[in-house]
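Risk register update: the risk of archive-format incompatibility is retired. Evidence:
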Amino acid sequence: MHRWCGGCNDASAGVAVCMCAGRKLFGDGYSGLEYDYRGLLNLYNAKGNVQKAAEYSAILHEWNVLRDQIHLQYDGPLQFVTNTNSCDEVVRQFFCIRDRTDSTS
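Archived output:
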């Protein structure tokens, strides 16, 4: 269990439970955690709890670093297939394929 999972004794306890469940199910880089971290950071800023706000700011930063590492590991640059056919050729190919499919049914 991470340091930010336990010890919540205020209104954020329910959010902390959800965050722990999300991490357990999807891992520490789970994208839904960003909203939880930002929400708690905003809450503590609004309440003037500088210590907790700084804590969640650091947690959000750690999460961002982890997400960047995960994206570099699993996500390469997007690969696009470019089609150099004219619009008329694409339409002709579409209907040709459709006609063959209709005749086999």
